[in-house]
Specification:
6 helices
């Protein structure tokens, strides 16, 4: 009589959880979706994780029919699998929601806050009107009176008038956990864009006092919707 291979459900769950992580990491690498969570320079860590998971999946597959050593092993494996797969739910949700937005900005933002890293020493081309929020804040003294064009997301603090909003980005060194919100005030007399919308603002730079700290104000001549940048966060 031909032997039938018995597959332990606990071992099957182990294979399924490893494959789920392998597929998820590959999905994050595809289209560079991982940049929602970590710096673009750290994508090699995910690639390395995928390479490690491949032999682990193969080894788990060949142990599918290994006998259980504990009568409760399969039930224990179900609980372990749930804990292992739970972070994937947050990963998928994070990508779906597009990373850090206005709610995170409101919780972390300090008026007049600039980057914690010494980026002001970085040289910028002052003749180029296209500039990011970080360079605008770190070189605001040199840019006063100039016309610039800045891309960012919109946030409407309750204390600002209807003609003003904050144009913000997040600065990260490693990952979204260490993200620092930075923003400039925009004075705009036209129709105000909704919170978290990506816009391109063209306007003149001036200095304002923000709770005792120098800040930047853009008096906008145009505010137009735009596609999100390839890298949602700024890196010093």
């Amino acid at each position: 009589m031909r032997n039938v291979r018995h597959i332990s459900s606990g071992n099957l769950l182990r294979v399924a959880s490893l494959l789920a992580w392998l597929v998820s990491l590959g999905w994050l690498l595809g289209g560079q979706r991982f940049q929602i969570f970590i710096s673009p320079d750290l994508g090699w860590l995910l690639a390395g994780g995928c390479l490690l998971l491949i032999p682990m999946c193969i080894a788990a597959y060949f142990r599918l029919s290994a006998p259980s050593t504990d009568a409760c092993q399969d039930w224990n494996r179900c609980g372990q699998t749930t804990l292992v797969l739970l972070p994937l739910v947050y990963l998928i949700a994070g990508v779906s929601f597009g990373g850090l937005g206005g709610q995170a900005f409101a919780q972390r933002y300090v008026a007049g806050q600039r980057s914690a890293t010494p980026t002001a020493d970085r040289q910028i081309d002052l003749s180029n009107p296209n500039i990011n929020v970080l360079d605008l804040l770190d070189h605001v003294d040199e840019l006063v009176g100039r016309e610039v064009e800045v891309v960012g997301r919109v946030y409407h603090p309750a204390e600002l008038s209807g003609q003003e909003f904050v144009l913000y980005r997040f600065l990260i060194v490693c990952c979204a956990a260490d993200a620092v919100p930075i923003g400039v005030h925009v004075n705009w007399t036209g129709s105000s864009p909704p919170d978290d919308a990506w816009v391109r603002v063209h306007g003149e730079v001036s200095l304002i006092d923000m709770d005792g700290a120098p800040g930047a104000l853009l008096t906008a001549s145009s505010v137009a919707p735009t596609d999100p940048p390839k890298h949602p966060y700024l890196v010093p």
